[in-house]
Write the structure tokens for this entry.
Amino acid sequence: MGVMTSTETPLDEKAIVAAAEQALADISTVRSEVSKVIFGQEHVVENTLVAVLSGGHALLVGVPGLAKTKLVTTLGTVLGLDANRIQFTPDLMPSDILGTEVMDQDENGRRSFRFVKGPVFAQLLMADEINRASPRTQSALLQSMQEYHITVAGQRYDLPSPFHVLATQNPLEQEGTYPLPEAQLDRFLLQVDVLYPDLAAERQILLDTTGIAEARATKVIEASRLQEIQKLIRQMPVSDKVVDAILSLVRSARPGQGNTMTDRHVAWGPGPRAGQALMLCARARALYEGRLAPSIDDVHALAEPVLQHRMALTFAARAEGMSVRDVISGLVKQSNA
């Protein structure tokens, strides 16, 4: 019996390595398919895909017109997901997202209620300009992101699987926006900042998108395959060294833990969910980059998208013109030292 188990263990490892190598190949095909349509936003594409591969939701923040919507539509196509889009507006109601009960009458005149599903019933939901809707409507969406089901008139309805929300948000300085509360921001695995493209990418955008034929993405994998990869990512081993790096980074971002810079500038820091996000995303990023195990570099590269929406600066730090990003990069430098 003992002999059998000793020969079985390496096979298991071999099987995991083989599965991971197959996942590497699939992810690489997904990357190249997305790059046919989205130019020069490698960082944005990487972080958004890492969030989806980790099984989570992402918040894309940037001014209008930076291809955020196009990215989400492209990902839906490439990953074989059934996608919907909701444009958030101040008068949008929770029922416009979740669905509503309508009165039906049969041929005998008997009346009954029937539930008509809202756009939230999709595998990939794009919530466009989420900070334009009222807090009540925002929380209807954010609750479904957390619980993967909704309740209407006391009846529970499960959302499709997989279920991912990619929300876009305008920078908060813009008028007519309702900032998302901290507890709701925490439900996003990553916050991805979408910046202006560089010169070469913008030139390519001009040339490729104003002609008659525009590049279109095609489906590369099925939703079921995406779920297999997500499961595999959760099985990837993480070395103690990487776990320690995650813990020390997350804890150093909290005031009162002995970090002078944090104590001076940070009002409140990230909770344990930030560490969970780093554990998952570091594995997904390793696969995305073509590696079979996460490294401390993955943790440092993900520090900003994982931490920036989970901490806030003191009034004094903001008055000095500091940003959360400055603090995070300082903490990463300290941990590198």
Remarks:
- The chain has two domains: 18-89+121-235, 237-337.
